[in-house]
């Protein structure tokens, strides 16, 4: 298989496209450099997953979209996700392009930047160049290199030092055309002592939309900053999702991940925090529901470099029908990162005999003066619990639902953003086949 | 009038027969107590009547007001009016006590007849007060981290809110101190009515000091071997079970043995 087949773009096309987008030279060079590496790099190794058999070879063609003059143009699927009136900011990507951007005058006046990444590279070149591709590097593996070469649309969110944003800023990534490139890159740079909450949804127009989502989300959390990232993916059964999320946290900074993995198709995601600074903090909460014949791999990772850094990772996944999930948690504590604490839990509840789950907690510790712990479980719905609930007149269906929700509740109820929490709850219900409209 | 009729009931668990042809008839307004040493099949009777999946009924008939109980799923039995206060209630994380109770009350009332939230909360709070339960228990996850006594009170709370036609109390007195015992007994007495039947399964006479039964039965080897009035319970308390065994020529009273 040659490069063209994998990337469906060659260097000449890439140059022409980048120029048409009026991208700065350094960005074009970065893209070309990444493209050159594609051929020499292997696919990422994903524990117990044969990624080469997935639909991850075709990245689709760039599909230009017209800007939306307003949200009344928005498709229903997008419209329903927006909290009206938009208080802080909203950015919408449709297939390959960002089509709508809105940021409150108040935030803009404070120096907050919310724009698509092409525009950011033009208007805030120095800032973008300093961070783009520094957390998730192009040379890590083939999919990372392809992403770096061909990403389009995307988000640049910048919060200056000391600015605290109290309303969540929202992004929506909407895929509605099979074969259209869908590779957004999200870059969040939070200045020292800043505070920001970013919420995104990744959605498909229909269940038969066949694309590869090769997405990267990079967070740079400055010293003393507080960054909250909530991301809910609900992509189509025919769509393959490969997503890398990574945060670099400086001293006394904190990153909180709230991840809802609600896709209907094959999915491999990796959410990682690098705790660089002393006293830095990472908290990851992942809720996942698998159904149909989905193959799923969810990895959460933390790497401790800073002293007295603290991490917590929790994944709770429900697998129904013939879904298979491999759930990895990796806590790595580097030599010198004294007085750290790293805790992780992965739990999988299986609802059918054909569902499969595998939880792999891994602690890699090169420093003595630390505390770390892990817990993992894979199990089925407890028959005694169902009997108990039914003995009070609750139907089997309802009883199972209560137990499943009870399983997810300790994580869902901890989600600090009310909107994300209730939407995730609705999505879980749909994925569990509890809503008529989604029973197809 | 409510009637529970058990006829020649046989049941086994993991292939081992525990109930060996048990018959009993209980009418509304009556309280029956089943006593007996450990391992004689008392709790199996409760579980088999409720429909626990591990207990296989191999023979016999059970009707509640002429409805065939054994043909029903567990939830249908409950909605038909049967209630079992369990010896070891399950703990269910993530489901709050009050959400669970409301689901149960609404399931019993049926679709279109659901209780309003305000009314439900008022009822729940008043019953909890009567049972001297801390109001915070309604927000806690169902039975999770409850002490033995708290779990039993929670069982009685469910009984009071569901207002069943027929109540089985399976060793509800075990693990209760004397104050909790009195509170639980008050709850039961409050629900006593001419159209509600009770079957109380217990090791000890002490619960029967607070709830006076109309009939007392002794269970051995998976059936009822002796019946009488409240005075039978007093004699068992004073003299133990040996005299019953002697009278009936039983050497091993457990259900694993044949007479």
Automatic annotation (TrEMBL), chain A:
Residues 178-407 form the SUF system FeS cluster assembly SufBD core domain. InterPro entries: Fe-S_cluster_assembly_SufBD, SUF_FeS_clus_asmbl_SufBD_core, SUF_FeS_clus_asmbl_SufBD_sf, SUF_FeS_clus_asmbl_SufD, SufBD_N. Residues 90-170 form the SUF system FeS cluster assembly SufBD N-terminal domain. It holds the Pfam family SufBD_N. It comes from the Bacteria. One of its GO terms (biological process) is iron-sulfur cluster assembly. Belongs to the iron-sulfur cluster assembly SufBD family. NCBIfam families: sufD. This is Fe-S cluster assembly protein SufD. It comes from Paenibacillus jilunlii.
UniProtKB/TrEMBL annotation, chain B:
PROSITE patterns: ABC_TRANSPORTER_1 (PS00211), ABC_TRANSPORTER_2 (PS50893). Gene3D superfamilies: P-loop containing nucleotide triphosphate hydrolases. GO terms for molecular function: ATP binding; ATP hydrolysis activity. Coiled coil: none annotated. It comes from the Bacteria. Signal peptide: none annotated. Residues 4-246 form the ABC transporter domain. CDD domains: ABC_FeS_Assembly. Keywords: ATP-binding, Nucleotide-binding. InterPro entries: AAA+_ATPase, ABC_transporter-like_ATP-bd, ABC_transporter-like_CS, FeS-cluster_ATPase_SufC, P-loop_NTPase. SMART domains: AAA. Pfam families: ABC_tran. The keyword Nucleotide-binding applies. PANTHER family: ABC TRANSPORTER I FAMILY MEMBER 6, CHLOROPLASTIC. Belongs to the ABC transporter superfamily. Ycf16 family. This is Fe-S cluster assembly ATP-binding protein. It comes from Paenibacillus jilunlii.
């Amino acid at each position: 298989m040659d490069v063209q087949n994998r990337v469906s773009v060659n260097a000449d096309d890439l140059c022409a496209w980048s120029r048409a987008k009026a991208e700065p030279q350094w960005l074009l060079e970065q893209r070309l450099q990444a493209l050159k590496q594609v051929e020499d790099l292997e696919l990422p190794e994903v524990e117990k997953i044969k990624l080469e058999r997935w639909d991850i070879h075709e990245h689709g063609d760039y599909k230009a979209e017209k800007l939306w003059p307003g949200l009344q143009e928005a498709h229903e699927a997008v419209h329903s996700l927006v909290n009206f009136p938009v208080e802080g900011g909203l950015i919408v990507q449709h297939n390959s392009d960002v089509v709508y951007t809105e940021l409150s005058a108040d935030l803009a006046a404070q120096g907050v930047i919310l724009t698509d990444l092409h525009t950011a590279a033009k208007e805030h070149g120095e800032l973008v160049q300093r961070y783009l591709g520094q957390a998730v590097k192009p040379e890590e593996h083939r999919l990372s290199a392809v992403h770096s070469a061909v990403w389009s649309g995307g988000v640049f969110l910048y919060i200056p030092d000391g600015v605290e944003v109290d309303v969540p800023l929202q992004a929506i990534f909407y895929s509605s055309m099979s074969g259209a490139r869908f590779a957004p890159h999200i870059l969040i740079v939070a200045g020292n002592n800043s505070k920001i909450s970013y919420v995104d949804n990744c959605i498909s127009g229909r269940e038969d939309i066949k694309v590869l989502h090769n997405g990267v989300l990079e967070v740079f959390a400055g010293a003393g900053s507080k960054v909250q990232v909530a991301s809910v993916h609900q992509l189509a059964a025919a769509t393959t999702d490969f997503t890398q999320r990574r945060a670099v946290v400086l001293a006394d900074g904190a990153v909180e991940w709230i991840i809802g993995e609600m896709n209907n198709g094959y999915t491999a995601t990796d959410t990682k925090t690098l705790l660089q600074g002393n006293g830095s903090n990472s908290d990851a909460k992942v809720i996942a529901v698998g159904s149909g014949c989905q193959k799923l791999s969810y990895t959460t990772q933390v790497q401790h470099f800073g002293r007295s850094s603290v991490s917590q990772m929790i994944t709770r996944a429900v697998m129904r029908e013939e879904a298979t999930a491999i759930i990895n948690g990796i806590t790595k504590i580097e030599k010198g990162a004294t007085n750290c604490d790293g805790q992780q839990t992965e739990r999988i509840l299986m609802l059918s005999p054909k569902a499969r789950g595998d939880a792999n907690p891994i602690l890699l510790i090169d420093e003595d003066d630390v505390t770390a712990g892990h817990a993992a479980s894979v199990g089925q719905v407890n028959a005694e619990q169902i009997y108990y609930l039914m003995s009070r007149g609750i139907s089997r269906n309802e009883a199972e639902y209560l137990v499943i929700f009870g399983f997810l509740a300790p994580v869902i109820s901890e989600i600090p953003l009310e909107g994300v929490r209730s939407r995730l709850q609705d999505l879980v219900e749909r994925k569990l086949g509890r809503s008529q409209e989604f029973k197809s | 009038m409510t009637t529970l009729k058990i006829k020649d009931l046989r049941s086994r668990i993991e292939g081992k027969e525990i109930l060996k042809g048990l018959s009993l008839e209980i009418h509304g307004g009556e309280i029956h107590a089943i006593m007996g040493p450990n391992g004689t099949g008392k709790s199996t009777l409760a579980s088999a009547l409720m429909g626990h999946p591990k207990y296989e009924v191999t023979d016999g008939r059970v009707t509640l007001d002429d409805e065939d109980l054994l043909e029903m799923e567990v939830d249908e039995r409950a909605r038909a009016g049967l209630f079992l206060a369990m010896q070891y209630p399950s703990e269910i994380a993530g489901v709050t006590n009050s959400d669970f109770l409301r689901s149960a009350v609404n399931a019993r009332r049926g679709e279109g007849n659901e209780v309003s939230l305000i009314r439900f909360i008022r009822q729940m709070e008043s019953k909890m007060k009567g049972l001297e339960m801390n109001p915070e228990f309604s927000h806690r996850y169902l039975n999770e981290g409850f002490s033995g006594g708290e779990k039993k009170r929670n069982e009685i709370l469910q009984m009071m809110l569901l207002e069943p036609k027929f109540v089985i109390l399976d060793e509800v007195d075990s693990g209760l101190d004397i104050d909790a015992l009195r509170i639980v007994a008050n709850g039961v007495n409050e629900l006593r009515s001419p159209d509600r039947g009770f079957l109380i399964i217990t090791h000890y006479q002490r619960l029967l000091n607070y709830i006076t039964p109309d009939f007392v039965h002794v269970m051995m080897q998976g059936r009822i071997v002796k019946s009488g009035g409240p005075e039978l319970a007093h004699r068992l308390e004073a003299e133990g079970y040996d005299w019953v065994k002697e009278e009936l020529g039983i050497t091993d009273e457990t259900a694993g043995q044949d007479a």
